[in-house]
Fold this sequence. Notes:
alpha+beta, CATH 3.30.1330.130, Wheat Germ Agglutinin (Isolectin 2), domain 1, 2 domains, five-stranded mixed sheet, 40% helix, FmdEsu_dom, FmdE, Formylmethanofuran dehydrogenase subunit E domain-containing protein, tRNA_methyltr_O
Amino acid sequence: MPDVILKEISERTYDDAIAFHGHSCGGLALGYVAALYARELLDLNYSEDEEVVVITETDSCTVDAIQTILGTTAGKGNLIVNNWGKTAFTFYNRNSGKAVRLMMRPDFFKSNPEMDDLRKKVMSGTATTEESARYHELSDQRVNDILSTLGNQVYDVKEPQQPVPEKAKIFDNIICPICGESVGVARCVEAGGQKICQFCAQNKK
């Protein structure tokens, strides 16, 4: 890969995260701050392969910012999503062997009754033009507040709860004897002495 492209990748910004995600929001900003904080703590660079690994405990907008800044993706096998509903992320630096788990501080977000009320109206499609504009104004303000906050003010640093995941593996495919479709053998289920795909295993009568 040419040096100029590497330089551009290593300097990805919040605007790049917006372009990838599709819009700016509080969740995206939280993910961006987490990625920058982890990069600082672990001396991380953009991951061309699996040099950086992330386990996220949410499937929220935060994850898209982390993918953009650190180059962690499901396709490369260095992004694992556990949808446990927690704004928490474990970052691993394979080169140094270091890792941290960042957990959003429980006292970071202060409730904004006006914004909460307007969000319900916007999401239900009942907001007036003025209410929608006010909601987006408050949302933009929240994003700016998050982006101007230091990582250690947003996240607590904790020890990882599990060791670094194994590197991604490539497995052979087989033909499921029930549906006749090709499936990765590592994702098959043993049933009646045969290896079948998970869909067929769940729907087998």
